[in-house]
Design brief:
Blueprint lengths: L3 E4 L1 H10 L4 E7 L5 H12 L4 E4 L1 H8 L7 E5 L8 H11 L4 E6 L4 H13 L4 E5 L8 H7 L8 E4 L2 H10 L3 E5 L16 E6 L7 H6 L2 E3 L12 H18 L1
Parallel strand pairs: 2-3, 5-6, 5-9, 6-7, 8-9, 8-10
Antiparallel strand pairs: 1-4, 2-4
């Protein structure tokens, strides 16, 4: 079985915490002995993991160019993702109201990692993206996500517009973000089952994605900039849903 690469304190610690047995090799920079590294080593050893000390050059090679902070792990894949229908069925069984994030054409690994981090922090149940227009969970995404890639399902689908139609059939209100929309994010009720749809920076959502949404809303912009980074926009929208649900 092929191993995946994890780099950086947050990503590796999160994987150890949630799936210790998946970590097959753990490398630590031998020259680094600061307090943060000592704390990490103690944590890893307390979980029964064997640490391989290596020089920076070897770690750089293992990390494949990803910034690693002196910590790299090779691990088996942990399957968090499930189908959209399975996810909705599971939430229904638990009595939870779905909160989802759909990403259309987001291909930058830093943006995807930041979106996963925001989604996890806001209590989003899953991030959904098309297979052919997404970067995938590579080492950079996992590092930027700071552990969120290990805890929140990332579901890839063949056709995003078809998935949106399926969500609507399951009574999920699909809200697309569009700078030109007349309504804004504060004018809608997202206490119900909600899926936010974000397009890539610059291009935005594709036409068919936009046309398939239940509703389009804008994020109010009062300064000189015209738009927000997709991860910031995702956080703004998801936290508006969280605010509404907590106030209810």
């Amino acid at each position: 079985m092929a191993l995946q690469r994890l780099a950086g304190f947050h990503a590796v610690r999160a994987r150890i915490r949630h799936a210790t047995s998946s970590v097959k090799e753990l490398y630590v920079e031998e020259a680094r002995r600061d307090k943060r590294m000592q704390s990490f080593i103690e944590f890893a050893e307390s979980q029964g993991l064997r640490i391989i000390f290596a020089d920076k050059a070897r770690l750089d090679a293992i990390a494949g160019g990803v910034r690693h902070q002196g910590v790299v792990a090779m691990a088996t894949e942990v399957e968090l993702a499930m189908s959209v229908d399975e996810l909705l069925d599971e939430l229904e069984d638990k009595g939870e109201t779905p909160l989802l994030l759909l990403l259309d054409s987001v291909t930058d690994p830093h943006n995807l990692g930041a979106c996963l981090r925001s989604a996890d922090a806001a209590g989003c149940h899953a991030v959904i993206a098309p297979r052919d227009r997404a970067v995938g969970l590579n080492a950079t995404v996992r590092r930027v996500a700071c552990g969120a890639a290990e805890t929140i399902p990332y579901i890839t689908v063949t056709n995003l517009a078809r998935t949106i139609r399926s969500l609507k059939e399951r009574d999920v209100w699909v809200v697309g973000t569009d700078d030109q929309a007349e309504s804004d994010i504060y004018s809608i009720d997202t206490r119900r089952s909600t899926a936010w749809v974000m397009g890539a920076e610059g291009e935005g959502m594709r036409r068919l994605t936009r046309e398939t949404c239940s509703e389009l809303v804008s994020i109010p912009m009062h300064g000189s900039v015209e738009s927000l980074n997709v991860s910031v926009a995702s956080a703004v929208c998801l936290y508006e849903s969280l605010r509404q649900r907590r106030s209810a």
